[in-house]
Every structure is written in C-alpha cells, then in structure tokens.
Amino acid sequence: MIHKKLIPHIFVKKGIAVTGFFDNRVFADGDVVKLAQHYSNNGADELIIFDLSNTDSEHDQSLKLIKEISREIDIPILGGGNIKRVEDVKKLIYAGCKKAFLNMAKKSNLDLMPEVSKRFGKEKIAACADNFALLKEQKELLETYTSEVLLLGDNLHLYEAVSAVSVGAVPILSLLDKEKMIALLSIEQVSGISGNLLSDPSIDLMDLKGELKRRGIVVNTYESKLKWSDFKLNSDGMMPVVVQDYKTQEVLMMAYMNEPAFETTIKTGKMTYWSRSRNELWTKGLTSGHLQYVKELRIDCDNDTILAKVSQVGAACHTGHQSCFYRDLVKKEYDNTNPMKVFDDVYSVIKDRKDHPKEGSYTNYLFDKGIDKILKKVGEEATEIVIAAKNPDPEEIKYEVSDFLYHVMVLMVERGVTWEDITKELAQR
After folding, report:
1. What is the pTM for the complete model shown?
2. What is the DSSP code string of 53-100?
3. In CATH, what class is 339-428?
4. How far apart are CA 57 and CA 420, in angstroms?
5. pLDDT digit string (tens) for 280-327?
6. Looking at domain 5-215, what is its CATH homologous superfamily?
7. What is the CATH number of domain 228-312?
C-alpha cells in the first residue's frame, strides 16, 4: 500500500533560511536546520529544498546547508535549484538529497535529464514545472528519465497536469486548504503534496494525517500491531517502558504507560507516559522542551514491557544528564568493542588533535604536512592491505586494515567528513 506524502518546503539563498511560504519568500536569519528538524520530528514524510542562489559561491553555501540538514533529519530530502551541469546534480545527491529535481523551464535541464538519469539512476531524478503544456510535450522524457514531478502553481490546469503525467506528481500550492488537499491526494498519480499549509511550522502534521486518514486518504501514521488488551499489565494496570536513543542505543530512562498514554503516543508520535507522582498524563518534554520523538516501539516476548527507540531532544534526565542511568553501581572493567563507538572514539581523538595540537603527535605531523601527505599515506596503507591479503594469516590483514582506517579518519577530519555522513551514504545505497 503506497502512502500519500505530506511534504513541507524550504527556500534557501546564501545559506540563509526563509519562512518556507511559497508566495512570500522573505529571507530571515532563522535556524533552517532547526526548522527542518521540526518538520522531520512532527510528521513530515519528506522535505523539499529550493536553492534560489544566483552564483556558484551562493550555491556552494546552500549545498553546505543541505548537507548539515541531511545529517540532522531522518526524512528524505528533494533538492533543486541552480542546476547547470551534471556536477550540480552530483553535489546535491552527495549533500544528502534522495532526489535532485531539474527545472523544466530551462532547455539546458531538459537536455541534461537523460545523462543524469543514466548516471545516478532514474529514482534519484525528479522534474519541476509550472508550464503544464510542457508536461504534455515532454511526457516521454519524464516517463523515461524521472521518477517524480513537482508541479508549481494553483491555476485551473493543475488537475489536467496531474492527469497528464504517469510518474508520481507532487503539487506545490500556495493556496492550499484541506478540501483541495484531499481532492488532490485522492488522485492516483499524486504521490504527495506540498504548500503553504504544510510548511507552516504551527500546523500539527500528525493531527492533519489523522484527519486525512479518517477521510479515506492512506497516509503514513503510527499504528500498533497489538491492541492494549493484548498487553500483560502490572498490578497497577500499566506497562513499563524502557527508552533508548535510536542512534546510539544508549538507554535513556524508564517510565510507565497506561492506555491513554499509549494511545496518545501512537496518535502524536511523542512519547507520553502516566506520571504516578502527579497522577496525570505526561508528554515528556512538553514543559522543558526535551521531547522524545517516536522512531520505533517494540514489545518483549511476554508482552509485558515496551522498548521505545526515540529521537531525544536535549537531556532525558531531569538532572540534566543525557541518560537517567549515569551512575555506576557495580562495574567490571572491559573493552567496549561496539564498532560504531570505537570509530567515534578514535575519530574524536583525531579531531581533538587537529583542534588542540599536541607536540610529538603523529596525527599532528600528518595535519602539519597537509593533504598531499595524508593522501600518500592512505594510498600506501591501501597497498599494504592488498599485499597482506595474499598472506593466509588474517592477523596481518587486521593490522593493515586498522592502519588504513586510521589514516582514512585523518583524511575525513581534514575534509570535514564524519562517520555519520558515511553511514548515511551507505544506508542510502
């Protein structure tokens, strides 16, 4: 079953955020990353980013901003604007965009579509148009080389335009109300919708999705596979909930849910508990701002404990600590070989050496010598891996791969690439 997508949009120029409203593109010094996080955490399915840059240098600023946004949000990004060559599409995709969209009003972009589609894959290319006659004229081009079309405008030809395309259509409307939204989302070719209504940060997208669902529109909402009556409750009629950071896997806290708390969590996507001390429903962070956004709810083998994986804003503990479990009770020393933690720890040490040089440090020696020396070492270590692989003893391979990864991390720090960038790129593949 294909869910219809609700997609806010943001305009950027020179790396500066705008209000997000289509007809009133007033630039502001607001935190565009925080705005994107708000959309991601509050029910948006994707995010469209229009780069309104006029120059290559401005475009580079916008790309940096898109990259920063992609690190901080979990929903796909559709990015476009100022595309003149294949390299511009590549930069958008490498910055973290799921798709790059090309403006069909530019003849050069029409000529570019076949090449970028073949190079990056049809699923990564979309088109953007406000000339609906052009959609009919270029129908074969769109069907062959794109996977989606963004349709700009509110005019009467919109419904005709939607019907004219066979790839997914995403109308982007300034004049958007709920009834028009329902009418458009009811059309088979419409894969999603964007507009002023959805880009207004004050709109509760989860609440809107609930209304759309009641009106027969298939949207992506939280749904539990089990009913409350299927759970084995404790003597107080509650379910214990263990809360875990969805990225780091760190255990953050433990609380309890009754049925209203569970249903509120499912409806809103924000972790809600029953406060036994205050004897009331408690949406975590509603007062402090330290909200917990649901990423996944799991049930244990006995149906008597919930594991919640969340995106935690700020600290989970009322003491200000990230986790409520910040004190050791009993501890035996051990080596933490969690791969991601090891990579993060080594990367942090390398970055600290760059930020705070230490005399005699080999890492600082590499940074002082510069990029050419670092690249030379990466190449040498890669060759050492090839040589080691000819040896049947795996110990030598372990040693050489470790050397290689260290030097690669020096390169990553030098060029401002993080492990999160790498893992996101691998996940997208």
Report:
1. 0.83
2. -SSHHHHHHHHHHHHHHHHH--S-EEEESS--SHHHHHHHHHTT-SEE
3. mainly alpha
4. 26
5. 999 999 989 999 999 999 999 999 999 999 999 999 999 999 999 999
6. Aldolase class I (3.20.20.70)
7. 3.10.20.810
